[in-house]
Design a protein that fits this description.
about 400 residues; about 20% helix; alpha/beta; 26 strands; 5-stranded parallel beta sheet; 7 helices
């Protein structure tokens, strides 16, 4: 290595990019190397299942450009195979060893594959990269037959909604009886399910895919009910798994992601932080349990926070305590959430009058608001987000924002 410190960012997605940008904003003048298995600059993933799929945006429009003064070395199409924290080295293809003074783990997640499914079938796609969505668009152009979405969660529902806006026939196959019930309470999930049904999405819920068949031009799914669905394209949207295989022998604690302290520092490691979908950390604004948050805005904010904590050092870093938020638009309905509704153990209506379309639901634990979900209630959701940010932290008793670090890497 040369005389300047080097920070390596593993993961060329939005969390890694934002970490690198924050390092420069805070005056880090050493070397930044961004290593990722991705083939492109960071992709705005929420657009893949919406505007890019429908044709509103072109392929170039979904790329996120780095800051002009980032001055980083990008190592794309370069999967990391191993981390050796004792030697401060990450292993790259061809036996290359890349040394670091500080490390940001931002390797994200990988799409979960359907067990026993025809994952290599030419008619089967996931929606994770630009190439995935482009493949799906090509399949749609070649046939007007029904599209089958396997998975009734966030991505599956957004894809189905986008397809209906394109006047395509679509069916959703899901294990649960309602849509998005991993994020919504039963009432909201039921209402969303009814919305999809009214918009002519065929719903095969509470079932599993028993077997797959078909040739190059068509796929067929045999359901546990005995029914068979034919499809020109099958979208597998059954969730994701943290991309941590390269950390297996590193000594990092892996439990639904890489486990971090409240400051984003990886447990038991020096000068290593994690950010984005791969990181499991306790958000002390809500409680002390490590969790992952797979939302676009969290990846941005946590990338920046991890960079601050890395430069501060473990002893001086402050906890990362965001108020998470996400949104989705399906069949014209805008769904927004702030906070962590899943932490709540009960829910109440925050509306004086709810309608079949508009509503505002609060989630509470021990009488304390932990999150809010709104259906077509954008202004109210934003207001509650501000209230959650202004509230005191239950475990620390503070309300202040994170302060920028005042010192460089601890050992340099």
């Amino acid at each position: 290595m040369n005389g300047l410190p080097r920070i390596v960012v593993v993961g060329a997605g939005i969390a890694g990019l934002c970490a690198a940008e924050r390092l420069r904003e805070l005056g880090f003048d050493g070397e930044i190397v961004i290593v990722g298995s991705e083939s492109t600059m960071p992709v705005h993933r929420p657009m893949l299942s919406k505007q890019f799929l429908t044709g509103e945006l072109a392929a170039a429009d979904v790329l996120t450009a780095p800051a002009e003064n980032l001055d980083a070395t990008w190592r794309l199409n370069t999967p990391v195979s191993q981390l050796d924290p004792r030697r401060r080295v990450v292993h790259l293809p061809g036996g290359e060893e890349l040394e670091y003074d500080g490390l940001v783990i931002a390797s994200g997640v990988e799409p979960r594959r359907h067990p026993g499914g025809m994952n290599a079938h030419p008619r089967v796609v996931v929606v994770r990269t630009r190439a995935d969505t482009r493949k799906m668009k090509n399949l749609l152009d070649r046939s007007r037959e029904q599209v089958v979405v396997v998975g009734s969660g966030f991505i599956g529902c957004e894809v189905a909604s986008s397809l209906r806006s394109m006047d395509r026939s679509v069916a959703i196959v899901g294990r649960t009886g309602t849509l998005m019930n991993n994020l919504l309470d039963n009432d909201l999930a039921t209402r969303l399910t009814d919305l999809h049904r009214r918009n002519k999405v065929r719903l095969e819920l509470g079932v599993t895919v028993r077997s797959w068949a078909g040739g190059a031009s068509r796929a067929e799914l045999l359901l546990s009910t005995g029914r068979t669905l034919g499809a020109s394209c099958v979208v597998v949207a059954v969730g994701s798994v943290p991309a941590v295989s390269w950390l297996r022998d590193s000594g990092a604690r892996l439990d639904n992601g890489v486990v971090c302290e409240a400051t984003c520092h990886v447990e038991g490691m020096e000068d290593v932080v994690a950010a984005g979908d791969v990181a499991s950390w306790p958000n002390l604004r809500f409680d002390g349990k490590p969790r992952r948050v797979e939302h676009w805005t969290n990846a941005i904010e946590m990338g920046r926070a991890a960079a601050e904590s890395l430069l501060s050092g473990r002893e001086s870093a402050t906890p990362f305590t965001p108020v998470p938020r996400f949104w989705s638009e399906q069949h014209g309905l805008r769904i927004q959430a702030v906070g962590m509704p899943s932490v709540g153990v009960e829910h109440v209506s925050l509306d004086q009058v709810s309608t079949s379309q508009r509503s505002l639901t609060g989630y509470l634990r021990d009488g304390r608001l932990t999150g809010v979900i709104g259906f077509d209630r954008s202004v109210a959701v934003l207001d509650y987000g501000k209230k959650l940010r202004d509230a005191s932290w239950p475990d620390t008793g503070t309300t202040g924002d994170r302060q920028p670090p005042a010192q460089p890497l601890s050992h340099v």
